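seq:
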Amino acid sequence: MSEQYFTNQPTSEHKYAKFETEILGNTIVFHTDSGVFSKGGLDFGTRTLLEAVPPLHGRILDLGCGWGAVGVSVGKKYPETVIVMSDVNERAMELAKKNLKENNVTNACVIKSDAMDDVDGTFDFILNNPPIRAGKAVIYKMFDQASERLNKGGALYVVIRKQQGAPSAKAHLQEKFDHVEVIAKEKSYWIIECKKEAE
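struct:
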């Protein structure tokens, strides 16, 4: 059985790769490896997520950052923000740190955390491409923790494929947030915006 990308310490043989992509108006170089999600390049779902979210500000969490596609791209686009990138996969975390350095992104940090268990503070925005293969319990834990750690007026943005549970995920999110809306649909990918009312 192949190793899953949400494993804490992947043991698969390293197969390093490097690629360049245009995203959010910048050319970004990424390093990837075996044992991480989408090691071959920027996946369609993550690109769709990045292109769908409105302008960002304040404190941002890249929840389940992998090798850093979201955090690096957002950090490069919005250098005035403060970004926290979290993941449970140590190999992915090292790649995320390398990708921040490669692209001179200095407004972000990478921490190890199972969902948001070891993430401190609250956020204005949380972006999440959930680890579908980890199962619904893990994903919904991420959603529930995000709802508790968003600032008033903040938003969670999630990308999920329709056939991988987008309708049921939306229903769950509607129980936790004040406003939930699908703001984009590309191929089978839904971008779901979940907002907390500002006081």
